[in-house]
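Hi Prof. W.,

I finally got the Na+/H+ antiporter prediction working! I wasn't sure whether to trim anything, so I left the full sequence exactly as given:
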Amino acid sequence: MSDVARYEYFLFLLLVILALERLARRLALPPAAAFILGGTGLALLPGTPELTLDPDLVMVVFLPPLLMSSAWFTAWHEFRRNLRGILALAVGTTLFTTLAVGIAARLAVPSLPWAVCFTLGAIVSPPDAVAAEAAMERLNLPGRITSLLLGESLLNDATGLVLFRFALAAALTGLFDPMAAVGAFCLVSVGGVAIGVVLGWGGLFLIRRLRDSDLIITATVLLAAASYIGADRLHVSGVLATVTTGLMLGWNQHADFSAGTRVRAQAFWKVMVFLLQSVLFILIGLSLRGVLHRLEGTADLLHRLVIPIAAILATMIVSRFVWLFGTDAVRAVLRRWWPRKFATPSLPETIVMAWSGMRGVVTLAAALSLPEALPGRDLALCCAFAAILVTVLLQGITLEPLVRALKLTDDDAARIQSDENAAWVRVAEAQLRTIEQASRQPDGTERHPRLLEQYRHRLRVTREYAQDMPIHRPEEIAHYQAVLAAIQAARAEILASYHHGQIHDHVLREMEQDLDMQEIAAETRL
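And this is what came out:
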């Protein structure tokens, strides 16, 4: 396939993505499931070109921006508050799943060396950040669960990839030193965080001096790639480096980015993440052709792989339940002595978190990077693809009904709304104090009487709304609906003036941008 043909095929995939996204919304399916099914369907069509995925290229192209975006928009306080639970999931669950799957693989296929079995365990152990984020967007889960699952997805790839590297090295050389592996794991993790901190501070130093929104957004993309590639070249965790850089940018964006830059950056990253996620899941589905091609003519082998694959996938799913319920039991015991430090375990929350372990790009890329001569490579490829299909399709589709059946809702919503109302009151008070100081003249008269009246009215309305939101909410809705109607009238007038040649293109763009910001603010309040 020529480069032009590849580009044309990529454009065709974008068209397929639009159709599948629309179909997923109509059928209430998770978009990731629709994309994988669509890619799988394309792979099975006669005449579909076979795409050979370079696992290293997939990791470098897709992981850095996706990890950067997830870290950038992470709720920092929730992440820090739940860091202990996140680490227990990201490290503990991944290690336990690797061990359990390795033992299951050995029991299912006794001829496989132990190192190969644990390599297979490391491949399927880490849930995927992309799949987790795609699933969380559709669910109204309690903030703690969302923070734990998204935090786990940010950090567990590092654990899984490090375990994969050590297990694969042991499988190829026959040598494994547990103490050396633990030391190397700590070095790789700490080194990745250190690289992320250095590049984060360096990037912020540069961004503060760029000032132009286009250059700043471009710099954030480069920082994502530089963090991952730089850490990887230094043989430390590129995942942790990228996540650390993203957390630092997200924490400092409120002070170091202008309002225009933040709005443009959020729009840019939202579209970029959508395209990368969509293309990635389509490519996962298309990779089925390559897997089938490798197993062509080995129907007996495939038949003999069905039982081992089923056993491995069952172990992979069950081990997550075992770990989470086990940690809950430990917390329940510890709570007897330290009730303030350990919250009461919630059965519905644990079930949802245990059922949220979707696999994705890291699992596929790790399996594709296995050497051709490695024993059990066909089993690893089939297990990786089956793990992605089963978890994204089965768990991804059933997760929302499960949440509804368990009646698990966001209990923090009322508290968050109350905090928001109180914050708006403080904001209105601060603005009024500033306007009063700016308006008062030495002779006692007011320089900005109308502006002062406007901000006093805003404070009064904000206080009334905060005290009894249910009564005032209908009035607020009616208010912003009227504002939106006025904005649409203004937009129609501007367009009519433009079409009659009464205003310049530059004037149209400036006025339209101002109306767009007003519309965004009104729609946000609605």
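The mean pLDDT is 83. Does that look reasonable to you?

Thanks,
D.
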